[in-house]
Structure formats: structure tokens, C-alpha cells
């Protein structure tokens, strides 16, 4: 078996194991959803990285929405356009949702809520693990064009 396919299979196995372990430890194993028992330093070592990454993603969503809202576009000729453009409404909703989620995240971190950190951590982790899984599948399913004897 080619070395690339071996690495692809290994990445798939590791991603599935890590995803399962994360889901088990975050949602099934943990019965006490409180950070009250943690030392403040331990809490901030968890909250700061998750908060920064979450705020970066929410800020990106807000920036995209504001860019769409403020861009000046020449309207096309009426006879060419057959359907209505809802991009401004969708951009406004993206901005409102991004701001609302940022406020909820900030409040959740302030009151030391387990779910305020668990949900963004799960989303971020599962997206990264899904990306690695996809790369592994792409490596496994890619055909090689070189002959076997080279």
C-alpha cells in the first residue's frame, strides 16, 4: 500500500477516535456542568483560547456582513434581473446573529457557564476534525498515475 494511503487511513482513525473521545468527555461523561470547582487560573486557561477563537470567527462573520451591507454595486438592467436580491437582508441578519452570539458568549464566559465554552469548542473542534477527515478521504481516494515499478 502506498505511503500516502497509509497516512490517509491513520488520519481517519485518529480523527474518529479524537472526535469520539471529545464527544464522550464533553457531553456524556461530564455530569457537573460547572466551573465553580476549578481554580481561576484553570478556568482562564480554558476560557481565553476558546473565547479568542470564537470572537475571531464571530468578528469575521460581522465583517463579511458589514462589507456586503456597505458595498456600492451598480444595479443591473431590469430586464436581465428576474429575481429579487436578498443579499442585504441576509447580510443584516448575519451581522445581528454575530453580535447576538458575541454578547451571549461574553455573558456565558462572565458567569463561568460550561455550555458557553463547550458549544464553541465543540463546533471549532469538530470542524477541524472534519477537515482532517476530508483530507484523509481525499488522500485515500486519489489515484496515482505513476506505474507501480517506479
Q: Can you describe this structure?
A:
The protein has helices spanning 3-28, 40-70, 87-110, 114-141. The chain is an all-alpha fold and 150 residues long. Helix 2 (40-70) crosses helix 4 and helix 3 (87-110) crosses helix 4. The protein is flat. The mean pLDDT is 81.
- Spans where pLDDT lies below 50 across 5 or more residues: none
Give the SSE order as H and E letters. Answer: HHHH
Largest sheet: none
> Which structural class matches the secondary elements?
mainly alpha
Strand content: under 5%
Count of discrete alpha- or pi-helical segments spanning 4 or more residues:
4
Cα gyration radius (Å)? 22 Å
Mean pLDDT: 81
Number of strands: 0
Bulk shape: flat
Approximately how much helix is present in the residues? Answer: over 70%
Distance between the termini: 14 Å
List keywords for this structure.
150 residues, mainly alpha, flat
Give a short synopsis of this structure:
With 150 residues, this protein is mainly α. It has helices spanning 3-28, 40-70, 87-110, 114-141.
Write the layout of secondary structure elements.
Layout lengths: L2 H26 L11 H31 L16 H24 L3 H28 L9
Helix pairs in contact: 1-4, 2-3, 2-4, 3-4
